[in-house]
């Protein structure tokens, strides 16, 4: 069992304002994995003060970009050296299957590389020649750090979410207060150790596990210049309103209810194999999960049968078992939420093809949900509109391609989606019409060099690569006379 009676504030392990410890409980069997302290508003005050001083007076914002790059490269190398340990901790505390947490670590590395490459090529300072040759001046455009960044991340994929924010924020010269979920206190303590070892100056970064009330205190606190948030759309709306009152910069990566459009010519075996991962990754607790399956009426029964066979073959159980594909939900409340949605689907008149609200036999101690498939689903049903965040898929029939695009866009969300077809150009034509931030074709993974983020209620701003780095700078123009 892991115990920790310190908080990582300003680059140092320090005594918290409240010594009480929170039990970190296994989602698999409710055993206690660790006991750790949590941050309160007084600890937020110390972290923001340290970050403010480090930004206003310290060396980090004034360090040349190439030197900041070297520190972040070192940080990523330190993470890579402990990738297996990180994967094990996340699996234990989250219930994420070990196959997923292990597969995620190389992705975290590629995410870092996308930001490092962008920083190498970034126009930190550029000279613009006047568009009018007779103008008596030229312009110098500088990209400078914003200031103190409050980065707030969810529990479902903590290293990926934290990397998506702290790497570009630090590369740009900002200082950071990273607020993490209590469930991730163990893996995020390891992250804090890596940050300490990487060689960041004093005060530049803090890592605070804390509840929602303390998170809101951080958002509202003076001295914070930008909020970078990943989480639910409801929480994002609240954060946006609070940040707007103080004109704080904000970027929001929010919820999703992504559609997978299966075109009539798609190779069904490939589709089913791809959706096993694209729709059910991380136990279905993923904002990008393609949980709305749009099937042509001509092949509807075939698609439903294929998904049924696939879902009934999934191994559900101990996330530490390498054979397990679906582990437990992160907490009892999330388990109950998913089970409630399954009952809502039945009440709405959807056809329950496989699964249901019953807990899998022999797994009653954990936060388990039976993988569930609904057919004969109408796009207006709650199970087709609301983010369930669990292993629940719905299959919606469509007529022609226009109908498929209409249904795919019939959502307040617009984060991700997919198109399947034997004709790549046909798939691309449909992908171009969909109103969503990322579309994968024939199961291609989401890349890290292109922008990632959502349309509509799925967020504001973008992450990854140069577009993500640009979220953490202010633009300054200096005009100089031409002599």
From TrEMBL:
Alphabetized UniProt keyword annotations: Oxidoreductase
Pfam family name, one: Aldedh
PROSITE patterns associated with the record: ALDEHYDE_DEHYDR_CYS (PS00070), ALDEHYDE_DEHYDR_GLU (PS00687)
Enzyme class: oxidoreductase
Active site feature: 253
Keyword Translocase: no
Domain of life from the UniProt record: Bacteria
Domain Aldehyde dehydrogenase: 13-478
Catalytic activity: an aldehyde + NAD(+) + H2O = a carboxylate + NADH + 2 H(+)
Keyword Oxidoreductase recorded: yes
Enzyme Commission number: 1.2.1.3
GO molecular function, one term: aldehyde dehydrogenase (NAD+) activity
Family under the similarity heading: Belongs to the aldehyde dehydrogenase family.
PANTHER family: ALDEHYDE DEHYDROGENASE (PTHR42804), ALDEHYDE DEHYDROGENASE-RELATED (PTHR42804:SF1)
Protein name per Swiss-Prot or TrEMBL: aldehyde dehydrogenase (NAD(+))
